[in-house]
Design brief:
Layout: H1 13-19, E1 24-28, E2 34-38, E3 43-51, E4 57-65, E5 69-73, E6 80-88, E7 91-95, E8 102-104, E9 109-113, E10 120-124, E11 130-138, H2 139-144, H3 155-180
Antiparallel strand pairs: 1-2, 2-3, 3-4, 4-11, 5-10, 6-9, 6-11, 7-8, 7-10
């Protein structure tokens, strides 16, 4: 039987979406790591989540599902960045307004962002061992990691900082445009 998770993972919509679709047992250890143990009806394996003080969250999947799992990551007011690294197995990613799914192969890294207008869909196929590390962070918090504490007097340094910001905006806008095609 699926557990209700109204407040359990509301800060992490990805894990909340996963938990709403599987049968599991949950535990939290002394360092605050959440462990989701799949019950036999959903497959076998674990999903671990740990949150760090800088709003960085790490989620590790080591599962083998008994049925396909579609994970819908809803849009929200936060601009969340997702960094995937698939260690074993494959999954598929798409924005909700496209029918094209991109395959995320084993040993591949993929990054995408949430959007106020679109949400992401992930599909993990049944019967295939799947190991994946996912890092999530608020985009504003991520950008703060690259901000200089001073205003550069050097024009070239200022241009480099501006180019970095433009690249982040372009990457986000390009992803939105590709998903609307």
């Amino acid at each position: 039987m699926k557990k209700d998770t109204p407040n359990l993972f509301d800060s992490n919509q990805l894990l909340s979406s996963v938990c709403s679709a599987i049968d599991y047992n949950e535990s939290i250890d002394s360092i605050g790591r959440k462990t989701i143990d799949l019950k036999h009806t959903s497959g076998h394996g674990q999903i671990n989540q740990i949150r760090f003080s800088n709003q960085l969250t790490a989620i590790n999947f080591d599962i083998n599902l008994s049925s396909d799992l579609t994970i819908e990551i809803p849009n929200n007011k936060n601009n969340i960045l997702y960094f995937f690294y698939t260690l074993e197995g494959i999954c598929y990613h798409s924005f909700d307004n496209t029918e094209k799914f991109s395959k995320i192969d084993e040993l591949k890294t993929v990054a995408f962002a949430s959007s106020r207008y679109k949400h992401n869909i992930l599909i993990i196929k049944k019967g295939i061992p799947f190991k994946c590390n996912i890092l999530t962070i608020d985009r504003d918090q991520y950008i703060k990691n690259f901000e200089c504490e001073y205003k550069p007097k050097n024009q070239k340094l200022e241009e480099t900082h501006t180019i970095f910001e433009i690249c982040l905006l372009y990457t986000s806008d390009a992803a939105d445009e590709r998903s609307s095609v």
